[in-house]
Structure formats: C-alpha cells, structure tokens
Amino acid sequence: MTEAQIRLYPVQQAEKIMTEQRPITRETPQAEPVKVPLATRPLGVFGSLSAGRRNILELIPEIATHAPILSGRTGKRWHMVMEPEALRHILRDNVTNYPKSVVTKLILEPAIGDSLFVAEGQDWLWQRRTAAPVFSHRNVAALAPVMTAAAERAASRIAKGAGRAVNCYDEMVTATFEVISDVTFSDGEGFDRASVHRAIEDYMAQTARVSLLDIIGAPAWVPRPGRLLSGAAMRQMKRVADGSIQRRRSEGNPGVPDLLDLLLAGEDPKTGRKMTTPELRDNLLTFIVAGHETTALTLSWALYLCAFAPEVQSAARAEAQAVLGDRAATAGDVAALPLIRRIVDETLRLYPPAAFLSRTAQAADRLCGREVQPGDTVILPIYALHRHHVLWDRPDSFDPDRFLDSRPADRYAYLPFGDGPRICIGANFALQEAVIILATLLARFRFDLVPGKLPQPVMILTLRPQGGVWLGVTPA
C-alpha cells in the first residue's frame, strides 16, 4: 500500500487495515475458489485504461474490501462506496441524484434504447409501472414449465458428454437463452434466435470495453471511435423484432401468454399509457440480454463452486434426488430445495453478474462524511462489497450456510440485484430458473474440477468465466 492510498481514508483505519491484510493474503489461498486479483497500487490514467479493457474489476483497489469509501481522481473525480448505509442512500433514499453513469448509457443505449434499464425519471417510472405486473409471482410461476423443459434438454445434452470434460458455461448459455426466447417470443415466428444471440454477443464484445475517453471523463457527445463501427447486427435484429411484434399485434398468440403478450396487454395504471412498438422492442431486448446472461453466469459459477466443494455438492444432490427422483424440477419444488437456493445465493455473493456499477452525481451530496460534487462518478463495486472483511466472515470462502438465516444482517451488504426502486425487475424469475436448472443437473450428475482448466473471473459488462467452466461429468 502506498501513501496515496492511505490518504483516501482516516489514518487510524488505514493502520488497522494494513495490520489485518497481511495474514489474509498469505494464509489459505488454495482453500478458496478463484477470485480477481484486485489492484494493490495506484493505476493512473493509462494503467486504468489497460486494466479496464482487460477486466473492469481490476480497477478496484484491494483495500476496498476493508474501507467504507475510497475517493480519487483518474481524469475525473470518483468515489467508490462500500458502506451499506451510504449504498442505501444512493440506491433508495436519494436515488434521483444518482442516475446511471454516462459510460453505462453510452454502452447500452444503442442496443436497448431508452428501456427500463437505461431510462431515468418519469420515462423510467411509467415503464416500470407498466412492466411490474408482468413479473408478478403468478406470471413467473406460470412460465416455469418453460424452465423445466430447458432443464430437461440441458440434462440430455450434458449426458452425451458423460465421462469427459464439458464446458458447462456454453451449456448454461444455451439453456437460459432457450428459456428467455421461449418466454419472450414463444411462437418464434420470424425470430431467428441464433442470429439474435450472435448479434448480442458481437455488440457487447465490440462496445463494452472501457475507452480512454471514458476514463478521462469526456462528455457523451464526444464520439468513441471503437463504438462508431459497431451495431449493424443489432440494428438488423431490432428490425426483425419490430416485425415479430407487429405480427403479434395483428395475429395474436393462440398459445400460453408469453412476455410479449403480457407487455402488449400492459398499461401504466396511472396514465393508461401503453408501450409503442419501439418501446416494446427495447424492453424485450433488455429482458433477453439480461434475462439469459445473468442466469447463465449464475448457473455456470454455481456448478464450478459445487465441483470446488464436493461435500456441498453431495448434500445438494441428496436434497435434489429426494425431492425430484428422476424428473426435472418445477416451480412447485423450489421451496423444498433450500440448500440449492442457498448455493445460488452464495454464488451471487462471490460472483455477482453485475459486479461493478457506476452512477453520476447530479447535485452536491455527502457520502460517509465525504463531499460529493455534481458530475462526480460514484462507483458501487458489488464484487468488493460482497467480499468486504467488515461485513462478511471469511469473505472469500464458499459457504452456502451463511444464508441459513436467508439474508445478511444488513440487507445493503448483499446486492446481487441492486435495491431500492430500481431493483432488478426480473430477480424472482432469475432465481426460480436458477434453482430449477441447478437442482435438475445436480440430481443427475456429479461435477468435478478439471486440472489446469480453472475458470478466471473477468468482467467486461458482466462477470464471466474466461475460458469457460470445464468440468468432468459423471452420472450420479
């Protein structure tokens, strides 16, 4: 640690942290699952650019897992907040002062427009009121058969790889994309799912990396060259989606209502306003992007963690087999699978898909006693929060039983889906899907680590396992 880092918080606290750090980094790294090597020295502008393009989480100082707040300047002023009360203030009590950052909007708006994820103020509020009933408990439960069917197909595919290593990340991406496709455009009419998936992947690969202009805080109107040439596939995808929506408007859907049907029927209860075709399309694309990506990542990391901790995997398998027998899990089974739900919760703590959030302060404020000025970037490093040594016992260890009491003592110490009015609208959908698929797979297979094939957590837009999640698969 350098003097520059120590000046970011009170000296007494820094001395205590430095004392605590020594054993933490040297004692039991082999007993912990893979983690990100956080920064141990100031990076500067070009160091930050290099780290941000390689892995956004490498921008987080290791000391962030001990301190309540860090502040500094890398081109522009920033504050990194890990203190639960301050996070409550940002996400709930003063949420209008902390909209999504300029960088977030620059990356996502060309793909998902001014949809729920990006919109602010009244434009966000009416969309939220319109979409909220779509994700009610009743509607989410009604969509569960799609999840069960996808779990069965995933098990059939994985069974073909029994006796050798399988890239479980690829399998989980396939499974969750099947789910989100089937619950969004259930008839599939005119909607090429493979090309949609390719377009999303290509767009994110080209645009989601940090640019030098982002680091130095250039205004949004300054073009980012790396993003100017991308997006042709997304524009074509939008045209295809618009056509599918128009057909559904005119021809209807004779089957079980899907997300498109529910959104077409939805309206703002306060104004009666309904979504236009572009608004429907942008929100459906948001659900497709977020709905499959976050759940696929959660399942991939959960399978890795189960392979990392065979005793946890054995207990989870016994629970799943006792409940399911030889069938796939359903929505009705979720409440009877508490250990598997705890594995999902602990996975979201160690590897939160949205592991690094940023906001831009609109007005002067104070966080942890520190002055925040308009235009300052306020960073919510969820990855560091979930591994904070003040908030969690053995924070880098895999221990699903830490969730036996369902939530940590301070709810703002655990934010895999955010919180406040902008909490993820699809959280219950994602949790139900994750439990159904994970239980089905653990009941049928044993997963083992493959030497030399450990996944590496790398965040570009989401926290992905670089290199895939290669696990040995054996029938249970």
CATH architecture of the domain at 103-308 and 447-476, by name, is Orthogonal Bundle
Let me know the CATH homologous superfamily of the domain at 103-308 and 447-476: Cytochrome P450
Radius of gyration: 22 Å
Might you state the CATH topology name of the domain at 103-308 and 447-476? Answer: Cytochrome p450
- Which CATH class of the domain at 103-308 and 447-476? Mainly Alpha
The percent of residues in helical segments reads 40-55%
What overall form do the CA principal axes indicate?
globular
Strand coverage percent:
5-15%
Which stretches are low in confidence, meaning pLDDT under 50 for 5 or more residues running? Answer: 1-29
Can you count the beta strands?
11
Average pLDDT score: 84
Distance between the termini: 48 Å
Count of runs of 4 or more consecutive helical residues: 19
Secondary structure blueprint with pairings:
Blueprint lengths: L2 H4 L4 H16 L17 H11 L14 E6 L1 E6 L2 H10 L8 H11 L8 H11 L5 H6 L1 H16 L5 E3 H17 L8 H15 L4 H4 L9 H4 L3 H20 L7 H7 L11 H32 L1 H15 L13 H13 L6 E4 L4 E3 L2 E3 L4 E4 L1 H4 L41 H18 E5 L6 E4 L3 E4 L3 E6 L1
Parallel strand pairs: 2-7
Antiparallel strand pairs: 1-2, 3-11, 4-7, 5-6, 8-11, 9-10
Helix pairs in contact: 8-9, 8-19, 9-15, 13-15, 15-16, 15-17, 15-19, 16-19
Describe this structure in words.
It is built from 19 helices and 11 strands. A hairpin with a 3-residue loop joins strand 9 and strand 10. It is 49% helix and 10% strand. A 4-stranded mixed beta sheet has the order 1-2-7-4. It has a domain at 103-308 and 447-476: Cytochrome p450, CATH 1.10.630.10. The protein has helices at 3-6, 11-26, 44-54, 84-93, 102-112, 121-131, 137-142, 144-159, 168-184, 193-207, 212-215, 225-228, 232-251, 259-265, 277-308, 310-324, 338-350, 382-385, 427-444, and strands spanning 69-74, 76-81, 165-167, 357-360, 365-367, 370-372, 377-380, 445-449, 456-459, 463-466, 470-475. The longest helix has 32 residues, at 277-308. By secondary structure, it is of the alpha+beta class.
